[in-house]
Amino acid sequence: MDTPQNTALTRALTELPGPLPARGVIHIAMRHTDRFTVVGNHLAQHPTLSTTAVGLAVRIQSLPQGTEIGIKALAARLPEGEKLIAAALRELEAHGYLQRARTRLPNGRIVTRTVFCNQPAALLRTRTVPTQPLPPVVREIPAPLPVWAPAPQWDPAPPQAPAPESVPLPATTPPHTAPMPEPQPAASPFVPLVPASTAPKPPPRPLPQPHASTPELHRAATAFLADLRRQTPEFTLSEDDIHRLAPAVAAWLERDAHPDTIRRTLTTDLPQPLRHPAKFLRHRLTALLPPRLPEAHELTPPPTRPRVTVTPFQTCDGCERAFRSHAPGHCRDCRNVHARAAQTAS
Question: How many folded domains does the chain comprise?
Answer without folding.
Answer: 3
